[in-house]
Design a protein that fits this description.
The protein contains 2 helices and 13 strands; from the N terminus they run ββαβββαββββββββ. The chain has 221 residues and is α+β, with helices and mostly antiparallel strands. The site of 2-oxoglutaric acid has 11 residues, from β6, β8, β12 and β13. One of its GO terms (molecular function) is dioxygenase activity.
């Protein structure tokens, strides 16, 4: 509930210092726009794929990258574990969304000033997909990660920088939500233990499943 003393909009919550959840940040139109763009990205040259972990295990999410290709656990310009093609460029409009996301999440008009994300990981989760607790640490820079979600709700677990175990905070991410983690939270462990199937409003552009896009600054030349 919002009170006279809140200086942040209702529902805008700081999960940990540097980690902010902004429910409903994307309008339904913007969600549809994002879904359509992500469909278009999937037409190539590099398709969505389940990344293989070094032990041989396949991730349950299907992933496509922009700007730089991520395969566990490094960034390259070409998708050598898929078809060897160069990934699509990181679009300017998406970088602009990233800068606006930081301004809104941190309630600071200057927060987006030097933010030039150069990679996006787009993950598609079906009803049973999940993502184990991990750090986003293959980047050589500590700019914030901007995360956008569309489609089914999920349980998002945001932990600490020391270990993949407690203390952590469980939150429900819904279609249109923004989550930003930077500053002292930048290298916190996080994961997606569960999707809540059939919670999507098809108006978002997806009839099932969950799309998550994280943009990052790789710090690579
Ligand atoms: O799906 C999410 O909300 C998180 C995705 C994530 O942590 C990642 O791609 O590294
Ligand atoms: Fe992550």
């Amino acid at each position: 509930m919002s009170t006279l003393f809140d200086d942040a909009p209702a529902g805008h919550s700081e999960i940990a210092p540097g980690a902010v959840h902004v429910p409903g940040w994307l309008s339904v139109e913007q969600q549809r726009e994002l879904v359509e763009a992500c469909r278009e990205f999937g037409r190539g040259p590099v398709p969505y794929r389940a990344a293989k972990l070094p032990g041989g295990h396949e991730m349950s999410v299907r992933t496509l990258c922009l700007g730089w290709h991520w395969a566990p656990y490094k960034y390259t310009r070409t998708a050598d574990d898929v078809n060897g093609e160069r990934v699509l460029d990181f679009p300017d409009w998406l970088a602009e969304w990233g800068r606006r996301a930081l301004v809104d999440a941190y309630q600071d008009p200057a927060a987006g000033r030097d933010y030039e994300p150069d990679t996006a990981l787009i993950n598609f989760y079906d009803d049973t997909a999940k993502m184990g607790m991990h750090q986003d640490k293959d980047e050589q820079a500590d700019f914030p990660v901007v995360s956008l979600s569309v489609g089914d709700d999920c349980l998002f677990r945001f932990g600490n920088t020391e270990s993949r175990t407690r203390p952590y905070t469980d939150i429900r991410l819904r279609s249109g939500d923004l989550f930003v983690f930077g500053g002292p939270a930048r290298f916190a462990y996080h994961g997606v233990p569960k999707i809540y199937p059939a919670t999507t409003d098809p108006a978002c552009g997806l009839t099932g499943g969950r799309l998550n896009l994280t943009m990052r600054v790789t710090g690579l030349g």
